[in-house]
Amino acid sequence: MGKPPVHEPGSFIVLTAAPRHVFYHAQELFRKTHQLAEEIAGERRLPLEEVDADWRRATPRPVPEGREVAPADVLELVTDTDDRIKAALSLLNVNALLRDQPERDATKQPADVLTELLTINRKLNRMMDRAFRMQDVYGQALRAVDYAGDLGAGYPPQADLEGSKQPLDVYRRLTDCLHLIRQVGVAFDVETLDWEDDGELQAEDVEAADVYDSATTVVAELAHLVRHVGAEHTAIPRGEYRRPRDVLPTHVFQLVGVLEMQLHMLATPAATEQATDGI
What we know:
This protein folds into two domains: 9-129, no CATH class; 132-279, no CATH class. Helix content is 56%, strand content 3%. It has eight helices and two strands; from the N terminus they run βαααααβααα. The chain has a two-stranded antiparallel ribbon.
């Protein structure tokens, strides 16, 4: 099972991060390991409950309410994920691969943990039979647009579809959005993820699952901005940004263009002042 890639996809270099950044990607790691173990169990027709009694809890721990994410929250979530990995190894009868937990390294920072999670998530993307698709990315992009609307950006109309786009095009536009989120963070006086590009990507380096991971980072940043400023939730107007039946990279590129417009608006001081006054 799984289709190892010829190319290892690029990413970005994490310079500084907070536990909340790590938590969101740890949630994705939980979901992916859970799905991978289910795929293995399905192939072998084995009941997962015999390996892990807690298997029915298929969703990761939620973001803590009313406080900042702490390292202990991340540890609990990663421990849950470790249980899923052990269950998968047990199903494969390769328990010999299980290793003792290494000693803790007190020098490691959230940025180090996030970098490791991003690498593991990319590897898992290539191991799953039911990999993330563009319709999953569309859902994440829609969440990001919703959060930007909560911050007072409104819901601008979509531009016309632009020709044939590839996952790499969507990935690059999401990267542009992350640059803009930094500017929005400065305008709102909120610390955001500090990162830099890691080289030039080629079309064959990026698949839908890689774009999904990038969109997850965007959603995490905007969700934190919304919580930080205490914005109230305002639902996207009915009928706006309706999901196509067959979602292509071109459709996601079009929707992320809406997010890009919203972030440009939020990054302007006048718009930010107006948004915070209304919150």
